[in-house]
Amino acid sequence: MTLKGWTLPQSPTGRSSLLPPPPWHYSGEIISADFTADPDQVAELLPPGMIPMGDGSGSFVFADWCSAADRDPRIRDDPAMGQYREAYCVLYGLFDDRKASRIPYIWVDSELSLVRGHVQGFPKKLGDIFMTRPVELGRGGVRKAVGSRFAAHVSALGRRLVTLGVTLEATVEKFYPPSVARPPLHTRLFPSVEGDEPSVYEFQRARIANFEIGTVFTGPATLEFGPSEYNEIDALGPVSVHKGYVHSMAFSVTGGSVQPVVPCP
To answer: Is the alpha carbon torsion for 64, 184, 35, 115 positive or negative?
Structure first.
């Protein structure tokens, strides 16, 4: 009998496989903030061939996702499978003479998201992520409205890594925050068990469809990076913190394109 499954574990039916192939669909709530770090620190985190913007600009993003997959309805229908949170850093530069972004650090709280990220080239690690959840009724939470304050933080291995806050002061229609406006460049890296040379080492860029963004609430933000002997995001500072954003977002990943990583001479 042939074992089935797009990813491990494989089984006779394939139902145990953790991840089906794309397309994958995402709908979520975003809390983010722009920052400026030491340009040299930013440059050190970019891959070969990616040129830093030179101003040390970046963003930190928290996302509360609902996800689905055409090939496995369980992901949409079971919140334990398809719903998760993640927190990630975005840095900016140029690749192939086009504006691009890079995610050097990202934490998630779902095994499916972790594996789906590694397949695409996201450097995902596990973390504990908490975000302000907007409410429609009562006084038990905050509304997605001018005057509200949203907060988020991520910890890993008991260390608080990032703390973010945004006070909503205005709305912006048909506006893409920097972390949304520039397509990310990922590195698919799978080491070989036989030696130092990787079995897979390539850049990956996703094919995106059905992108939507809701009304963007914006205002002043606070952002702090904490130390950890297992994570290095505190090296980015940040030097200064700029605007923050709260908004809804949705898109589909229909696949991706790859090319070899060519080290700089």
So the answer is: positive
CA distance 17 to 110: 15
Residue 245 lies in a domain: yes
Domain count, the chain: 1
Look up the pTM and report it. 0.96
Residue with tokens 């809701």: 214
Q: Is 12 within the bounds of a domain?
A: no
CA–CA distance, 2 with 121 (Å, rounded to integer) = 28
| Tokens standing for residue 68 | 């689905």
CA gap 248, 241 in Å, rounded: 22
Give me 46's structure tokens. Answer: 């970019």
The string of pLDDT tens digits covering residues 137-159 is: 999 999 999 999 999 999 999 99
Q: Is residue 3 part of a domain?
A: no
13-58 tens-digit pLDDT: 999 999 999 999 999 999 999 999 999 999 999 999 999 999 999 9
Residue 7 lies in a domain: no
Query: Residue holding tokens 């963003």?
Result: 59
Residue 248 sits in which domain range?
24-255
What is Dmax (Cα atoms) for the chain?
61
> Would the CA dihedral through 50, 57, 34, 97 be positive or negative?
negative
Backbone angles phi, psi at 259, to 5 degrees: -150, 150
Return the CATH number at 142: 2.40.400.10
166-202 pLDDT, tens digit per residue, is 999 999 988 999 999 999 999 999 999 998 889 999 9
Instruction: For residues 221 and 182, give the distance between their C-alpha atoms in angstroms, rounded to a whole number.
Output: 21
